[in-house]
Amino acid sequence: MIFTKNKRKIISFYIIFYLFLSLVIALFSLISVAIMLTGELLLAGVILAFLRLHIAEVKQTVQVGEETLVCKSFVINGAVADAEIPYEKIEKIEVRRKYLFVYVHGEKPFAIRDNYINYPALCKALCEKCKDAQIIK
What we know:
The chain is of the alpha+beta class. It is 42% helix and 31% strand.
């Protein structure tokens, strides 16, 4: 089973966030046009600098396979990474309101947020595959 993110939700969040920042910077035009132009150029630079990470977040997928959990295009420590995790290495799964924390042996936990299409089915499928793991709800 392959689970993808709800692209509409993520893209609308980024559009609203960057429009809000742009409007805040535009308010500085009341003080000085030079300050506003400098702020808008910095905002455009930030958008271009993090564009690869934004695109990776939109393309994130989780595949619950027979023997492994495959996570593609995850942003980890500021870099895009793919992972293939055997279910035997998963020690604990913690289900919280908006997050599913997966603890892998010898690694830091990673979170799967609730912005995936059919998120409850993802949680259920992962908990069924990881029978040896401690599941905390």
